[in-house]
From TrEMBL:
It comes from Streptomyces achromogenes. Gene3D superfamilies: Trypsin Inhibitor V, subunit A. It comes from the Bacteria. InterPro entries: Prot_inh_I78. This is I78 family peptidase inhibitor.
Length: 71
């Protein structure tokens, strides 16, 4: 039987620290801190809720991050 893959470790980074930042700056900062995927979404966007290690989600309103969460 094949071994169960181990998901990659996520950055030890608090998503709340991105709230209020300019969206483009927040994305660059997140990538520098090790997030492999950064997803910017408009408020109320319909998204799938699967958890993806290494992904950081931003809700962006008026060019600023209004909410940030893992996965």
């Amino acid at each position: 039987m094949a071994p169960i893959p181990t998901p990659p470790a996520e950055p030890q980074d608090n998503p709340d620290g991105y709230v209020g930042l300019d969206a483009a700056h927040a994305e660059r900062l997140a990538r520098r801190r090790g997030w492999t995927t950064v997803r910017s979404l408009p408020p109320g966007a319909i998204i799938t809720m699967e958890y993806r290690p290494g992904r950081l989600n931003f809700e962006v309103q008026d060019g600023r991050v209004s909410r940030a969460w893992r996965g």
